[in-house]
């Protein structure tokens, strides 16, 4: 059986899992959020990463159900952490294919209301390539998602082709600098200059800046110095099951 034909049944059957990767403040490395990253606990093939099946889901309507599952799971988990005294938010990835889905905004409204999550606690990550498909439509959807109480983050920023045009057309709360620039910054003055410039640009547009792909202490210190507000990467934690997020070395805000 091909993975793409199995996936809808697997979602219904409860085979998807959500892992979480911490986001920490640049200064003191307190956990202020987590990014939800989907996995598939496949009965024969073992634990599959998103690269193995998210692209398949994106080629069919399956991505709609997958996204709804991850949103519900992540928001419920975030609400549980907050009830336990952890002042954290949660970030969920949205594919281009769901941005055009008429039910998306209502789903977000419903899930936030169901778990009584405060405005600004859920962040929705979109990539430039997702926005490229239909920039005007995307701007309207992002505005509606923000009106519903979610934050919007521009993921993998700097790798698309029309970054600056995007910034003129839509309002976002957060910019995630692509990990290719972050990882290279300690070794290449050009990359460090690009990180600095993206930070300044984002701050002037009142956006918070996340540096992703921080793999060592030297990179963490450098991008903090370049002005990043929040850091994410293997140096702090890999994506882990919910139960492991607050049991390691990292403390929450
Ligand atoms: O963990 P890995 O490096 O394989 O992740 C690859 C990609 O899968 C990342 O770009 C990430 O944004 C994407 N991804 C992970 N979880 C989800 C999800 O729930 N929905 C969507 N649309 N993409 C996801
Ligand atoms: O495209 P997106 O930014 O959503 O991708 C998130 C992916 O990045 C996850 O699959 C996660 O495993 C991966 N990731 C997170 N931190 C690091 C890191 O420090 N280094 C590398 N190479 N990948 C990372
Ligand atoms: Na992301
Ligand atoms: Mn990214």
Automatic annotation (TrEMBL):
The organism's taxonomic lineage, starting at the top: Bacteria, Bacillati, Actinomycetota, Actinomycetes, Kineosporiales
Annotated keywords: Membrane, Transmembrane, Transmembrane helix
Annotated source species: Kineococcus rhizosphaerae
One MF annotation (Gene Ontology) recorded for this entry: cyclic-guanylate-specific phosphodiesterase activity
EAL domain span: 1-253
Protein name per its UniProtKB record: EAL domain-containing protein (Putative c-di-GMP-specific phosphodiesterase class I)
């Amino acid at each position: 059986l091909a993975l793409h034909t199995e996936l809808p049944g697997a979602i219904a059957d409860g085979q998807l899992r959500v892992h979480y990767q911490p986001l920490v403040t640049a200064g003191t490395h307190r956990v202020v959020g987590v990014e939800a990253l989907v996995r598939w606990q496949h009965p024969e093939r073992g634990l599959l990463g998103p690269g193995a099946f998210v692209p398949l889901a994106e080629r069919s309507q399956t991505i709609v159900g997958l996204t709804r599952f991850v949103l519900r799971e992540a928001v419920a988990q975030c609400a549980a952490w907050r009830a336990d005294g952890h002042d954290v938010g949660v970030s969920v990835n949205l594919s281009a294919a769901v941005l055009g889905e008429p039910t998306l905004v209502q789903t977000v409204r419903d899930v936030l209301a169901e778990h009584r999550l405060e405005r600004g606690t859920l962040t929705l990550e979109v990539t430039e390539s997702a926005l490229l498909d239909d920039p005007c439509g995307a701007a309207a959807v992002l505005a509606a998602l923000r009106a519903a109480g979610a934050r919007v983050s521009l993921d993998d920023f700097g790798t698309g082709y029309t970054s600056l045009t995007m910034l003129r057309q839509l309002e976002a709360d957060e910019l995630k600098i692509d990990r290719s620039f972050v990882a290279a910054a300690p070794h290449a003055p050009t990359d460090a200059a690009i990180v600095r410039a993206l930070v300044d640009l984002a701050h002037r547009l009142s956006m918070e800046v996340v540096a992703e792909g921080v793999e060592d202490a030297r990179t963490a210190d450098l991008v903090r110095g370049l002005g990043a507000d929040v850091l994410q990467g293997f140096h702090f934690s890999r994506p882990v099951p919910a139960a492991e997020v607050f049991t390691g070395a990292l403390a929450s805000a």
